[in-house]
Amino acid sequence: MLPILLIGATAWAFNMLVVSKPDVRKRAAREEAYAVEVKVAKPDQYQPSISLFGTVFAARTVELRALVGGEVIWVNPGLAEGQVLLEGEALVRIDAFDYEGAVREARANLAEAKAKLTETRATIKSEEAALERLKEQADFAKRDLERANKLAKSGSLTQQSLENRKLVLSQRQQAVEARSNNLTVLKSRIDQQLANSERLHWRLDQAKRNLDNTDLKAPFTGLVQRKNVDLGRNVSGNDTLVSMYDPDQMDVRFTLSDAQYGRLISDHTDLVGRSIKVFWKLGDVVQSRVAKISRITPEIDATNGGVQVYARLADRSGLRAGTFVELSVPDKLYTNIIRLPQAAIYDDSRLYMVNEKGRMASYPATIRAYLGEDVLIDASNLPLGEPIITTRIAEAGDGLKVIIPDVKTATNRAQSVKPDSKGSKGEKGQRAKGKRGEGKRAEGKRGEGKERGKKQQGDRADKPKATATAGGQS
């Protein structure tokens, strides 16, 4: 009987424990909230910069060749690579003996031609005077013949005397014609000698120029790039002696892609004349220069799909040819835009803002431009002054509860939302009543918490709060 009584007592005690167990209330499920960063929707204008790379080269270069051939008898001591030579400064001198002789010979030939011309002109004057005398004699013979004809008709003059007078007149006329022809020849000879004088003048000028060209001079103030001449060398017109360029006329050459070029000219502004910044990196030191776009190639380069652009550096930039530089080209000016990180844009067409209930609300987003990790959004269709969520949330959707840790942003948003003048007191009263009601509900919950704490006999575990997440992680 004792085991039976022990089993019965154990069953009764177990039943009493089950019946008298406290009623444990289940904890209500809490809505998960996400901590996010926001940016107030405030439209602005922004002009980004395109970062490019380019190469510096000389816009004005020259390769100086020997203008005349001969032996080099003098070289400028300052003629060396990297030296600056002034405009008009002599660089190389060639032996001028043959060229001085050519000048003398040309002068002598010209003087001889001038003397012959003077002689011919004097002969012409003499021939013209003799021609006048011959014409007078021909007139005398003609009048004598007329008298002879009258006498012959009257029978006072024989036929032989008449024929003699005709012969004299014919001889006089022949002499006049001969002198006239000779005078024509002399005048044509004058034209020949004048043409010869012009040729000899050119010969003299050419000889003088060759003599001057024995000194090779710098055409402008420039920097010597290469030197290929030494004392005693015999040079000709095909030899390049010196290469130099103007350090005050330096260009930067860079390439714009089709998209960049199209965007820069989309606002109908002229690209030529636009200022750009040039950065020359020397280790940890960066030197800045200013350049202006001077010209654009007329064709698109098929190899890289871009257009070559040239920008002229300011004078005395200090940059040498071949320098690799970084460029900052002003992009198109965007107005009424908001700059946001790309993480704030979903499906390239929408973004989320925080409404007055602290929940996410989607709005359409029109992307105007991409700037690295940021984008420019058109602000014309967005409510101004509202916070835009910039934190990426994997579970993003309308109505999702969010928390803004930045108190200043929330405060600024609350201050930016001003109530209407009509019914403002009533709305304030309703908000106050709502807050008092929420306070009472909070006190009731605290009372319930105390009772449950007493029932659970010292269970001091705090009630779990709403979990704040960032980026979709609790």
Q: What summary fits the major beta sheet?
A: 6 strands, antiparallel, barrel
Spans of at least 5 consecutive residues with low confidence: 407-474
Strand content: 25-35%
The CATH topology label of the largest domain is Helix Hairpins
Query: What form results from the Cα inertia axes?
Result: elongated
CATH architecture of the largest domain: Orthogonal Bundle
How many H/I helical runs? 6
Radius of gyration: 55 Å
Structural domains: how many: 4
Describe this structure in words.
This protein is of the alpha+beta class and 474 residues long. The protein is built from 6 helices and 25 strands. It has helices spanning 2-19, 97-154, 159-212, 258-264, 407-416, 424-455, and strands at 33-35, 38-40, 44-46, 49-58, 61-65, 70-75, 84-85, 90-94, 215-217, 222-227, 234-235, 240-245, 250-257, 275-282, 285-296, 306-313, 324-330, 334-341, 350-354, 360-364, 367-371, 374-378, 387-389, 402-403, 468-469. The strands form 7 sheets. It has a 6-stranded antiparallel barrel with strand order 4-13-16-15-14-17.
